[in-house]
Request: fold
Amino acid sequence: MAGSLALILPPQWLDRLLLPLVAVAAGTLLGGAMLHMLPHGMAQVGPTAGGFWMTAGFTTFLALEQFLQWHHSHRGTPDRGAASGWLILVGDALHNFLGGIGIASTFLIDPHAGMVAWCAAAAHEVPQELGDFGVLVHGGWPPRSALMWNFISALTFPVGALLAYAASQRINIGGLALFGAGNFLYIAASDLIPEIKAPTDPLAAALHFALFVAGVGLVAAAAAMSF
Reply:
């Protein structure tokens, strides 16, 4: 429902807030993947299988962008190539479904790590949903309809979580947690970090870097508290 903020906040406020939010989200996603999901997943399946699962998660998101012409945009403008509003929603639904699998699997292995992974994903969802809402509205969708379909696409997250829970009754789900970590790494490295690198203003670049480090630091502090 974060997209509804676009109806409340003045456009100039959104322009100022989006990239700082993206910087924090990049840090928390990277930290969540490397400091929480990776250690717990590797402990379950070992380094060789763990590397396979992380690579699979990373590659799946590359395929999602390549074949659906979909990627995480936070600008609120229709800059997603040839993607229609429906393709954006399908891509978001798949993204949320995979996120539900990865985060729920991490939670089932270690609740503390799962909560941190969820918080990292939530930090990312705010700028993402604002961007999605803006793209749909700029593409001619009525605001109420855009918000409703964004909400519906988010419901695939609990579906993925329930699937992970069902799988945990039969298989070792450490690989699924690492699959989610690969998703997080792709989003941070391919979609978020390039956006915060774009500004040429030294002050803006310094702010974004500081917020990125702050996002990593928050997740690192949570990791230290769990030991």
Residues 13-225 form one domain.
